[in-house]
Design goal:
The protein is 46% helix and 13% strand. By secondary structure, it is α+β, with helices and mostly antiparallel strands. The strands form two sheets. It has a five-stranded mixed beta sheet with strand order 3-2-4-5-6. Helix 3 runs parallel beside helix 6 and helix 4 runs antiparallel to helix 5. The longest helix is centred in the N-terminal third of the chain and has 14 residues.
Length: 321
């Protein structure tokens, strides 16, 4: 099976069981390009900076074309790294489409760049098959699509969490705003803002531009985890999901954590929280945030307490009040 065969077979059925069997058969018969393309399409942290990708409108004449899979990977990488943007990106895609087999471009390559294979097999279905194969097929493990997730706050007063509210802890303020994770990818030269569910939010251009300036001063790629706040919560909520006439110029990003992008991708960070907060505090006290973001980004202060002591419990209660 080719990648196109897999996509067409997946399109032809609505049964999840059938889709899983198609994917299993494809992998076991040696098809890899589909799975590589699926990973490129559905890894949320991989973006190509294009919203429109040209479609070939003439009929497929059966010619294989001179645009190869390796050519496509090279094009996608240049788009990901933003080596091609604007008119240059458009012209490069037009040239690629002109040299490519019609069905291959329209059905596979174009959909990868648009981040949607449109075949009814989403991340969960593809990963389910690959994870079943991972123990016996090491290559399958490499093709598993990374899933975006972030740590969410839990109610410490609930019985199942009470036992965790003890010992040395760091307290910070619960802000009335919108959770936002900023991915500063120095390798790709991009700053992307994500909601807690992994949706890209482009309604904070001032914050995004300020983070792009900050990224130039950082030694590596990081994730800044925080909350977007404004003078009015109601006004912020009105603007955050608007599709036109957006005005979020008064919004700021209050940051409560910083994690290397590599650690975020791995799902585990070996740098202790206290050390991560020291890094954020230093960026605040040395004026790095203010200098590069004009005050649009700042670190949330934290209070360290020992909840196993009466003093810690008193501080905790006062902090909550």
């Amino acid at each position: 099976m080719s990648a196109i065969d897999v996509i067409k077979a997946l399109e032809a059925t609505s049964s999840r069981t059938d889709k899983e069997q198609i994917l299993l058969n494809a992998f076991m018969t040696g098809e890899r390009q589909f799975f590589e393309g699926a990973k490129m399409a559905y890894d949320i942290l991989v973006t190509y900076g294009v919203k429109k990708v040209p479609e070939i409108l003439e009929e497929d004449d059966g010619e294989p074309g001179t645009f190869t899979y390796d050519n496509f990977l090279d094009l996608a990488e240049k788009l990901r790294r933003r080596e091609l943007t604007g008119h240059a990106a458009r012209d490069a895609m037009l040239a690629a489409a002109d040299e490519c087999n019609v069905t291959l471009w329209n059905t596979f390559y174009r959909r990868v760049l648009l981040k949607d294979l449109k075949c009814g097999a989403e991340t969960s279905t593809i990963n389910k098959v690959l994870k079943k194969l991972a123990d016996s097929e090491p290559e399958a493990k490499e093709l598993i699509i990374p899933v975006f997730s972030c740590q969410l706050a839990q109610d410490g007063a609930k019985p199942e969490h009470e036992k965790k509210v003890k010992g040395r802890k760091m307290l910070d303020i619960k802000l009335d705003g919108v959770r936002l994770l900023a991915i500063l990818d120095k390798e790709a030269g991009t700053v992307t803002l994500y909601t807690r569910n992994g949706k890209i939010n482009e309604n904070f251009p001032e914050i995004q531009a300020s983070l792009a300036r900050l990224m130039q001063a950082l030694p590596g790629s990081v994730v800044l985890d925080g909350e977007v706040v404004a003078s009015s919560f109601q006004e912020l909520m009105t603007q955050v999901n608007r599709r036109s006439d957006v005005d979020t110029s008064s919004a700021k990003l209050a940051v409560f954590d910083i994690v290397p992008l590599s650690a975020f991708r791995a799902g585990v960070c070996d740098i202790p929280q206290e050390m991560r907060h020291i890094i954020l505090s230093n960026m605040e006290t040395t004026g790095q945030f203010k200098e590069h973001t004009d005050g649009l980004v700042y670190a949330i202060p934290k209070v360290t307490v020992d909840l196993d002591t009466p003093e810690g419990q008193t501080t905790f209660a006062e902090f909550n009040r």
